[in-house]
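Protein Record: Sequence and Backbone Structure Tokens
======================================================
Tokens: labelled as protein backbone structure tokens, with as many entries as the chain has residues.
Question of interest: how does this chain fold, as expressed in backbone structure tokens?

___
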Amino acid sequence: MRGRLPSRSRAKSRPNILWISFEDTGPYYGCYGDPVARTPNVDRFAAQGCRWTNCFSTSGVCAPARSAIITGMYAISIGTHHMRTTHADPAVPELPTPYSAVPPHYVKCFTEYLRAAGYYCTNNFKTDYQFEPPLTAWDDQGDAVHWRNRPDPDQPFFAVFNLMRSHESGMWPEKCPSPEFDPDGIEPPPHLPDTPVVREALARMYTHIAHNDREFGTLLEQLEEDGLAGSTYVFNWSDHGPLPRGKRWPYDAGIHVPLIARGPDMEGGRVSEDLVSTIDLGPTMLSLAGVEIPHHIQGRAFLGEHAQPSRNYVYASRDRHDVSYDMVRAVRDSRYKYIRNYRPDLPYLSWIPYRNRHPIMQEIWRLHLEDGLDEAQSALFRYPRPVEEFYDTVADPHEVHNLADDPRIRADLERMRKALDTWLEEAGDMGRIPESEMVRNWYPEGRQPETAPVVCVPICAESPGIEPALEGGSYEGPILLQLHCATQGASIAYTLEARDDPHWLLYTEPLRLETGEYRVRARAVRIGYKESPEIRARFVVREA
């Protein structure tokens, strides 16, 4: 029997939101002017909504970038900046991995705020947040979830689909032996060598983007079939770019990403040149849903009732990648890019085994050994690295001409230096802390902290809420049942279902239990902590 659970009526008029992200994809779409791309569904979609030309990721690699997206916090602010945390490499056992990052106690996955407002939130299927996704982040998570699975068809939804085909690894020959695109019709960017190997890898890249475009079209068709297109905001974006000297770097080839949106009140065919960061996605969803944005969130809403003025700058960072440490910080405005290399003593190309599997990277190494790279293609082999890099991205979109010593741009260089310093001070750069020390602080004596178990506190005439009822009890009804966890920053999931795989609800307020029998199950979790043991309590509510 069910009691009166927290009401969802407040959410009925809220819009639906659908995210369809393309893994590892720069703006290689027809609507962005790419002459090779075949993206008819995305292009048609852009004509129905708004396309942003200046959207940038906070990192050139997925896990730090995705941690910023899901929390609305910069990776360097919450300790998720090292790529990656949950894997260990036997070649370098000295690293403090594996671990799950432990952000400050007030940091949540922004989807919890949507769930608290009555949204049904699903993710299909990638997370990669540098921490295990808490049970409370999603109503459903996995490769079979869909907005169509929500139990109440009137409940608004936030649904995420991560289209994985375009991942960097799709450019390996075994992943795409017969690309749809003719390599001879593709011209590599000037910082990559123009060889058959490079062209074939790019043909695979465009093939996978075209595949994603077809999946994108299918999801939009399903939205139409369900009669939801008119009440749903749809966003298409990517986490970062895919190519060497792009992925893992704060150059535009790594952080310039597509962003297109369509919605109930959005003008079709609009193009915005406003600066947007992918850290802004979460707070923008809250704004569109009419949910107040917590003050600790560092992203800025660019749509909806809580939208803020457009940005003057976007920021990016680079730290450890796999087995190799680095520290790079960058700031960009609408024209200039300033990059600060904290380790100029390191070569650009440190040892990253996964990156070296890329056929383009292997071709670059081969040609370097043969002294077959020109000046632009040799950028990653320059040593020592400059302490500062400064690029005019309008005159030099591939960022191969470092202007840091050019006196003609001295005023802009000083301005950008100051902008970066201000951001680092405000963000609180945890990159200054050795990773091993950071992990020791999170994991005392090398043990991951565990979330405290949930306790049930009944409130009624017989029980004024002073003592918990650890196993339940019998009370004259109705009663309010509080769920409590002693771990600071913990969220609580609960269910009244008895089945092995129940739907876990997010606890936000006391449960009102009317006459009947209830078997309450609850678990608590804080990001980065082990989940608490599940508690089960039986409550019998008698008639008054």
Observations:
- The first helix runs from residue 40 to 48.
- DSSP finds ten helices and 20 strands in the chain.
- The chain has a mean pLDDT of 96.
